[in-house]
Records
---
Amino acid sequence: TNNGIGIASLGYNSSIIPIKCAPDNSASDGNELPNAYDGVYYAIQIGADVISMSWGGSVSNITGQSLMTAANSMGIVLIAAAGNSSTNVPHYPAAFQNVISVGATNEADMKAWFSNYGSTVDVMAPGVNMYSTLSGNGGEYGLKSGTSMACPLVAGLAGLVLADNPLLTPAQVEAAIKLGCDSIDILNPGFEGQLGAGRINAYRTLDASASLPVNDESSFLVYPNPSKAQFFIRSNSLPESVRLISIDGKLIQYDMVQVDSSEYQINTYDASGFCILSMKLGEEWVSKKLLIER
């Protein structure tokens, strides 16, 4: 983003995948996203590592939670705006499990007057008078406020963490972000304990992420990945159980043939797209994301 034009954020060595969630020529100018969950599903399918969701409402639903659960199981970090109603009423998808809910602060680290708060908020980030792109065809920049402006800052921080340590799980990325936060409770009387872990701090988050343990990749290898209908598993330990699950949570049928003492051949039927391969090795379940191409 170092092109001297417009804006730059926290991410490093990251690619942005803009996903359109409304029809062409929509009269709402981006204020309504009738296909928001379809957009999340598309982001899962194409292998996004972080999904930023600056939208939502007060209504929860099983489909939305199932989609977030599937994304989390595939190693995707999910981040959403906490809402702009200055209430502690849960806002979705931010309040779903496995989603980092982001409230907004002003330049003085005080809760923005509009920002939601409460037990479902995980972290806070700057969200008042943020210079950013504007919707429309003019290629313009301007100042905007909202938890929708705070949310992408946390998404950029998640990208920064993963660029530094791509083996971290979503839970570890969330832990690093929270551990790195600066407490702002003392600056916000009346909101103590309702502003999540505090305002994000990128420097401290990278320090925290460096101390987190990573999965032992040497104990579990899947290749080729991407694969066709057939792929191989190499493991130092004998797997007690193997599961292959699609992104919508359905078990995928397969045959497994042991090639030698540490290698197994997997043949799938009618499976395509991203899925999660889980193996029980001893007392622990370990997982990897796999792309099956037809």
Note: The first helix runs from residue 36 to 45.
---
Amino acid sequence: FGEAHEDTVRSQRDLCMLLRDMGRLSDAELMFRGFAASCEKHWGSSHPHTLASLVDLAELLESTGRQEEPELLLKRVLMRMKDRKQDEATTLDSTRTMRTLGDLLQAQGKYDEAEDYEKKVLDHSEKKFGPQHSNTLNSLTKLAVIVHAMGRPTEAEELLRRALEGRKASQGPTHPNSLTALDNLAMFLKATGKHEQAVPLLREAHECCKKELGPKHPDTLTCAVDLALLLLDPKHRAEAEALLRQGLNGREELYGPLHTDTLVSVHQLAMLLRADGKNKEAEPYLQRAMAGYES
């Protein structure tokens, strides 16, 4: 077939991905670099195979904690794409590149640039797939995180509400993705001090999780704990304690007594009991948490 044959290219990339998935990151990086160089040699610097190989390399480097080189690679890819005829395949590669670059910039705190790229991804997703497609809704959530970090909570809340309504309309109110979107909005409202608005959303999420996933599903237990932490006012203390016990019992059964999530639940329950003056009841839980963290 030869080095430039499509099947050869596919098998080379598959081997790169396999090494990455096996955790052999040094071998994978060496293979990815060789693959990118080979693509450029055979097809040129702006060919889709070359550009995709550079994005693969950038994503691998990002996963190992490097930031400067992957940022430069991704920006180089976008510049080269401008020189190509924007066929469908190239446009999709451009969207993937902008999404990866946006994530990288966000991790570095470069929110202005990250916002610009994520808005371009959102615009493309809406035009290509529609306002209720999963790609579009994912972009809404990503953009909400960015603008919130930039100090624009009102805009972030609006984006999260759009994502929630889109999930409900496209997948139904009890779909796991809809429940995740509901929890995202509720936790955002909690973080911005809007507890009264957050509580009914978390109650809804908790009830839907119990019905659709079962009372011992990890998402159900997380909702129970999140709801409990919103119900710490005197009027709802008994309910909060019951929810924390539910979370603890479920996590202990699911993960075991020494799992991090179980120990967090042990500590949370202990602190609630202590705050309520139930010191004797709180003490064994605190001792258990301390022993678990030390082990």
Note: The chain has 14 helices and no strands.
